[in-house]
């Protein structure tokens, strides 16, 4: 006796993922593999004219392993273009993209596993330059039934040193309210 009521379906899907790293050695590469936990990662569709979908297709926060992964991406064409946005934790700024010379590829088979692929940063809201606290991988061409996990992002913190130079009239080593600043002093930072 044959029972033909038991069926199974197969769905072909694709996935995009990568690693978000804290570039503590300032070489623009993930050479020491420190995860940047707390980074918000958003996946957008890229339209034919290059614009992004109004809202992200998916979003997640990077955990302690530094990895993000968007799976079950299904589309009815041969390929679909996506953009990945990274919003770094407060105080972090994106590194230079493609520092290992992979040529800023959009093809998954040509992307390296060691550099940051974030290649678009928006203007600073005050118009003073580029806002590197968040950035995008402009375009990733994802084909049907493809899993690609080399789309990485790196960020780092910067420190600031500075204060006040004054003439210590009373030679007590403490800046008094009546002691005047000294202009034009050259300060040299040595390590």
Overview of the molecule:
The protein has 191 residues and is mainly β. It has strands spanning 14-22, 40-45, 58-61, 67-73, 79-87, 92-94, 134-143, 147-148, 153-157. The strands form two sheets. Strands 1, 4, 6, 8 and 9 form a five-stranded mixed β-sheet that branches.
On the 0-100 scale, what is the average pLDDT?
89
Beginning-to-end CA distance, first to last residue: 83 Å
Summed up, the helix count is 0
Helix content: under 10%
By secondary-structure content and strand pairing, the structural class works out as mainly beta
Low-confidence stretches: none
Shape label: elongated
Q: What is the gyration radius calculated from CA atoms? A: 24 Å
Task: Outline the biggest β-sheet.
Answer: 5 strands, mixed
The H-and-E topology, N to C, reads as: EEEEEEEEE
How many DSSP-defined strands? 9
How large is the share of residues in beta strands? Answer: 25-35%
Short summary:
The chain has strands at 14-22, 40-45, 58-61, 67-73, 79-87, 92-94, 134-143, 147-148, 153-157. With 191 residues, it is mostly beta strands.
